[in-house]
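Need a sequence for this fold. Nothing fancy.
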């Protein structure tokens, strides 16, 4: 990341500027190597999440959508019984999708965009139309629904669990959370 100062105010700029490059020298070989500057819009994978300096999580959403599309292709080609298809969706795909759910903030529309290829493929595999009402798809099994989970809701649950784990931990972070909750 690079910053530009103008009238005492900092502004993040793209790596495509004319600013001087940063080099690092290897301690044993003494070879200099340029450190490439990335665009502020370019995400990079860090601990399983695609983060961007601007904090808008576009690359994470695109990565999750790609994962959903890959799953849809594989689900469509697989020879599975109805119960096996649902198990594959819940046990393998869903768990890999919600791994990073506590980090990015995704709207309902974005969550629907992310999960739709996988849901449509799974619905077809278990004998339903991909245009089945989402009230039925996401409805509770006890009320006649299929019991699918929504990424948007699971994201909220993951964020609550993350906050509670910080509060229950004995650390500086938990103390800050408790101070914030007390006011």
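Here you go.
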């Amino acid at each position: 990341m690079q910053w530009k100062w103008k009238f005492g105010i900092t502004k993040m700029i793209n790596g495509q500027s004319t600013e001087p490059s940063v080099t690092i020298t290897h301690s044993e070989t003494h070879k200099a190597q340029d450190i490439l500057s990335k665009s502020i819009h370019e995400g990079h994978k860090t601990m399983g999440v695609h983060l961007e300096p601007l904090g808008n999580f576009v690359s994470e959403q695109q990565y999750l959508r790609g994962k959903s599309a890959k799953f849809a292709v594989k689900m469509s080609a697989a020879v599975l019984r109805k119960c096996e298809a649902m198990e594959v969706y819940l046990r393998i795909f869903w768990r890999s999708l919600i791994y990073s759910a506590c980090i990015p903030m995704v709207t309902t529309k974005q969550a629907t965009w992310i999960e739709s290829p996988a849901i449509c493929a799974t619905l077809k595999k278990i004998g339903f139309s991909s245009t089945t009402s989402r009230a039925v798809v996401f409805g509770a099994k006890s009320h006649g629904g299929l019991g699918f989970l929504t990424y948007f809701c699971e994201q909220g649950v993951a964020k609550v669990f993350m906050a509670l784990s910080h509060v229950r931990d004995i650390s500086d972070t938990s103390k800050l959370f408790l101070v914030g909750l007390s006011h």
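For context: The CA atoms of residues 10 and 41 lie 17 Å apart.
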